[in-house]
């Protein structure tokens, strides 16, 4: 069995190096051992990395994270050659170091246990029961590290009749209710254009980990966090859940329209579409004046939001006819002058290349150690004194294996070479 020099399991977790978080983010000094792949887990760990944590991403030696192969498109080197890393992977793995370890090898599992003893947080999204096989489950690891925060992300949770079932975002969107309320009323159910069930589970996981860190500061104790994709999907249906529980009617598909607000939907203009978002009666009256329909604003059928919801179809027909009289730019300028919330329906390309994107610094470029530039979209959070740090491009597979094993576990070049020869790393 592999012996790791210098490892004392009774020690508190080692802190990340100053080099790994040079601008001292709010999570500086916190080490995350990230055993997750695909999206929900990596999304959460990327947030923690953005906030200054030192994130060690453990990947399979053969192929790594599944999303590295989810292309095209592929990242290209400066000379135009494809790197083999898909854009999908790049979207969720910046500010991390990649270490390749075979968990199925006894010495590989031992390496990860040693890294766990030097970490504050462990994240995993394997099927229920897999970590126990490797001796990497929470109950096994907490014995050496009582302050360990261990976050598991699964499809349906650690217990229950579905606990052993696999799950991907699209099937969770479907079974968790989202697709039943997404799409046109007379059309087929639709999934959202990004893997939102995964992303929201990742957001829940990140916030839960931060809450557990606060509790550890009080008690000194870590804990196990269970974040199921399915439960997360159901939880964030928000007002649609309550519409059913309070109103006792099953919500349906409304296209771009809102179930509780009218008018709150897309309208066609002469040369395109705009999105109107009326949130109160005052804004509705302003809209009516802008459209040259002042009488509509005071009509008892439409004067209040409740009345407008009850008379949705007739009101929308009236407004739709007016919006077709001019183009999108005309209406956006007029509506803005009237204080009416509305916006253009832009493509992703529009969003990332227009003047406002430059103003907000949405797109940044990070360089890999070989000089390959990698574009990334900024974290939207702005701290006043501990800013988000864009210190590392999404890593090449196994790029930091030697550095991490030497730094965290004290392994020398000979020991690392032997691990590589034995197929452990």
Protein architecture, described:
It is a single chain. The protein is α/β, with parallel strands linked by helices and 425 residues long. The chain folds into two domains: 18-235 and 362-421, Crotonobetainyl-coa:carnitine coa-transferase, domain 1 (Rossmann fold, 3-Layer(aba) Sandwich), CATH 3.40.50.10540; 264-347, formyl-coa transferase, domain 3, CATH 3.30.1540.10. It has helices spanning 40-50, 87-90, 106-116, 130-133, 138-142, 169-175, 196-219, 229-235, 239-247, 281-290, 294-298, 305-310, 312-323, 328-337, 348-353, 355-360, 401-409, 413-421, and strands at residues 31-35, 54-59, 74-76, 82-86, 96-100, 121-124, 149-154, 223-228, 264-269, 272-277, 342-344, 363-367, 373-377. The strands form four sheets. It has a six-stranded parallel beta sheet, with helices on both faces.
